[in-house]
Amino acid sequence: MDLHWTFLFVPVAILYFSWTPVQGFIWPMAGWFATLAGLLFSFVLVHELGHALVARWRGVAAERIVLFPLGGGAFLPDQPEKTLDEVLIYAAGPLANIALSLLALPFLLARPEGELLLRSYVNPFGNLLLTPTLTEQILGLTIAVNLILAAGNLLPAYPLDGGRILRALLQGPLGHRRATITVTVLGVVIGAGLAVAGYLLSDPLLVFGALFIMVVSSLEFRGGWQRRRLAAVPVAQVIRPATVLGHDRIYPSSTVGSVRALFARTSWPVLPVFDDWNELLGFVEANTLANEAKDNHSSIEAYFEAEFVGSLPEENLLAITEKIVGANVYGAAIYGPRGKLIGYIFTEDLLPLLDTLPKKVGRLFKTKWSAERKSGHR
Ligand SMILES: [Zn+2]
């Protein structure tokens, strides 16, 4: 478990809010803020431990927990495969908060004015007519804050626990992509609602959290949109035909100079390297050669990567991209009928396809603007 470095802000914030121009530092106030921060920290910790322990119980490794001042994050390296596991793991955090709240309940009720205290803590708009003791305040806050944490995290908005649970449940009937679209759209809508609520309640923390939900949701939505776009592009549109290179083949023994010449002639970013039986061996990148190779007479042996992935032309571009990214190679070789090498797809060819919608709109405006400017000069 790690504490995120932004925790350094917590003592600074406590001191800042405990200082008044007239009285200087009000130490009892600083002590109270520190108690509050400690309480909140322990509630978040319990929440994250809930996720982590259930993940371990279900055999899904939770890599580590990083605690941020405003909330934690249990990082799950693999998405759990079974829907039930996913639901249990994401529900465990809010459930741990509810459990903590229920644990504090009998202790508060056992106090002389217990019921009245409970009512005032659970109702956010209620006025506290009593002056509770420190113990009573801690018990009341434990109940109220944990209920808020549980309810907030169960909102059906990505990336909150509730949104992830909803996505897991929708994945069966709708499929992963549509389920993700649903919860990310909900994330933006609910996030916007929370931002307005935060503004009306003049609660900067709520506004901040709401904006975070909106940003993460729209990023995830964009990712889904890009995947959909990739899947729709035919391989024929991006393939670099092997015939372009003709009989100019690169071997590990080829000289740096000859390969540089071929790069200059083709202006390809990456070129294939073959073995002595003319089977594809891997790829060499123009940039690597330009930056690392000094001597034109030495061989490219040290500068190429003997790794590639193979694909079929009828494969979808999304699947090919995932293969390239997964294997961390420069590109894929596309094999036609009878295993004949027909062409290549490189990472560089995929990047322009990932252009986001805002970028496209931006470019449209830019070209229009520069065209207008040009005509204005005339
Ligand atoms: Zn959670």
Brief synopsis:
The protein has 14 helices and twelve strands. It has 378 residues and is α+β, with helices and mostly antiparallel strands.
Molecular structure report:
- Keywords: Hydrolase, Membrane, Metal-binding, Metalloprotease, Protease, Transmembrane, Transmembrane helix, Zinc.
- The protein has 378 residues and is α+β, with helices and mostly antiparallel strands.
- The chain has 3 domains: 1-154, no CATH class; 157-232, no CATH class; 236-354, CBS-domain (Roll), CATH 3.10.580.
- Helices cover 59% and strands 12% of the residues.
- It is built from 14 helices and 12 strands.
- The chain has a 4-stranded mixed beta sheet with strand order 6-12-11-10.
- Zinc ion is lined by residues 47, 51, 93, 153, 161.
- Residues 47, 51, 93, 153, 161 line the site of zinc ion (ZN).
How do the strands and helices of this protein lay out in sequence?
Blueprint: E1 2-3, H1 9-17, E2 19-20, E3 24-25, H2 27-57, E4 64-68, E5 71-75, H3 83-109, H4 114-122, H5 134-153, H6 161-174, H7 176-200, H8 204-232, H9 235-238, E6 240-241, H10 256-266, E7 270-274, E8 280-285, H11 286-292, E9 304-305, E10 309-311, H12 317-327, E11 331-335, E12 341-346, H13 347-350, H14 357-377
Parallel strand pairs: 1-4, 10-11
Antiparallel strand pairs: 2-3, 4-5, 6-12, 7-8, 8-9, 11-12
Helix pairs in contact: 1-2, 2-3, 2-5, 3-4, 3-5, 3-6, 4-5, 6-7, 7-8, 8-12
The chain binds zinc ion.
The site of zinc ion has 5 residues, from α2.
